[in-house]
């Protein structure tokens, strides 16, 4: 049985719209191509390694990080320093003071102060042959000190080159000067008239450099830097830009076991800069916290003293009234007093007095917020609560009011910056007042509950006579005022103690230090792996694109599965100089393959023992080896004692005569036109049973000659003489001549060349076979080589293009195929 031989039932199993349709992607072939192009992966790996090495050495900007740990003590009583007594949820634990400090560390006011105090808007760097390196201020031999009253151009690199003897050359960029300059006083931009680029100038230390867009002087660094620099590049930035950049590089975390320990880290391009910033930042926080605590505690002491003075007057008045009743009404010894009820009422009214005192303190805090008089703010513990979030919101509100005052000197009330700052103030106020509202609600709810309990206790005293009830009311009033006085006195003592013993509640555990820490980013190993991986991905993408664009037939199994056409045999690559493989290499594997094809052909033909069998050999286009198959198939039949003739009916491109060394002066074209007889075109070969009729000169009308009745009669006449007639016909992918000749053939052989025949070319022949328009059809898979060689070596073949004959110049491939072929050329696809 022929491999792949199907019955008509089998043909119907393939839907007609699927006939000749191949899979878009062959994973097996893709992997083989990757292995075949291994040298590209080696090359791209070396390229990637070289690029990653250059990147890490010359281009990667190292980012360093330093950290500082501090402890927040629990003895805080200041309004601006909320204490730890009330915990809150921060992740899985934490403290309110931590929230406040974190907001302080990220606040604009705090970082703006540091930017101005440390001149962090002046950035230093140096440039080598390729790479720029950021410097700490102390790494520079001189500092740049600007004149803040003069407008300055920001983001404009100023190059300072040492010239010796305390002189430096100031070099400005060739272009980039602008008329929009920045004022460090108002922190905004202003426009000036156009000007020419300032010329380079040599200045001495402490000498002012003046230009329309800059004014500064160089100040000698008191510390001699450890490195010698050929150039220092100074870049000025705006205050807002500097603050934003700093805030984006700060991180705050709390210790998982002890929530009062805070770890602050800072990232930057220079390790010393991060260390100096952290230590200065925390030192400023300590100073500010102590000032805030003292201010608030003093305000609280003054407020409580005023309240005590007022309560003292009321207490004296209540004592006088109570003594009068005792002496005048003789009510100091009431019989049958209900001491239990009286004691309960006394306790309840003492609690109420304490709550009323807290409400009064709340009123003071609320009024201070409304009046924006933050310097008079009292501590929240005077109102009986500690709320870090509230304190932080008030701190933010205070900073926003200060900022609005600054902006008011620059912008009009209806401007966008003023609208934005007012919006932020309203949000902060709403947050603050909502917090106070919650405490008001809480206190009033407790007061109402106490009033209800007092009323219930009073019901037990209704049995007393009127005079005795009058005395008891006076006594209760006195007790309530006395309780209020005691509560205020205790708070005042706490406040005075805090003022006397105050110290910063921030203690540095581990200050930031330069311990030679390595960079935290970029991750050089990951960067190298990424670069090398990307370079290795390039050949994979090229092979993948080439694979997706490649439409060549490379898989015998897929070919048979799609076409359902039986396979007669597989021919390996021919490495000889001509096409006479069977004659000159009879013991080769290729010759043996042709003998197998000879045996398999009997399955295609009916009554294979009859004389005069016509076998037509064709293909899709030129270059697929149909002539090679025709010659060797005829040779193997002739060598098997079968009288055989090989007809060169490819009239457009004669070829057979060259291998057999036959004169092509007269051939089939001459016979079909009636110029010569049949005896004049039949040539003998060195194989006794093999004759050859060449094509002859190329005629102007090859199709008409091949489809003429004379050609039909010619074939019929040869059938009477020969056992086998092998027809080397034109390729069916370009002309329809072969389809006409197939009407008179007993077997049709379609040659498919490995890695050469296009998949789309198989669609037409497959459809005709599935529709039973062509019968007795078999495939020969030619030039199969697992090492991917094209083979043949007969230099006069059709070539690898589609230039088969002159008529094919008008043949147009499908649009998608033309696009694909052009892209293949771009990828150097073979």
TrEMBL record:
GO MF terms, alphabetically ordered: ATP binding; identical protein binding; non-membrane spanning protein tyrosine kinase activity
Sequence ranges assigned to domain AAA in this UniProt record: 613-756
Annotated EC: 2.7.10.2
Main enzyme class: transferase
One cellular component (GO) term of this entry: plasma membrane
Reactions that this protein is recorded to catalyse: L-tyrosyl-[protein] + ATP = O-phospho-L-tyrosyl-[protein] + ADP + H(+)
Record-annotated membrane-spanning stretches: 38-56, 529-549
Pfam family, one: AAA_31
Keyword line: ATP-binding, Kinase, Membrane, Nucleotide-binding, Transferase, Transmembrane, Transmembrane helix, Tyrosine-protein kinase
Family membership: Belongs to the CpsD/CapB family. Belongs to the etk/wzc family.
Protein name: non-specific protein-tyrosine kinase
Organism this protein belongs to: Chryseobacterium jejuense
